[in-house]
Predict the structure of IclR family transcriptional regulator.
Amino acid sequence: MSCIAAPVFDGPVAVAAVSVAVPRGRFRPARPAPAVRTAALGMSRALRSGS
């Protein structure tokens, strides 16, 4: 398995992470990377706004 991950921040502190794991033979980091980053950024923004 291979994975790609992005941190979720609450202010300057990483409090969680979002990751996707796929079989090594099918791993193409460029495909899931934008979605993983976007999800982590959305969660970070929600924490910052108190939602």
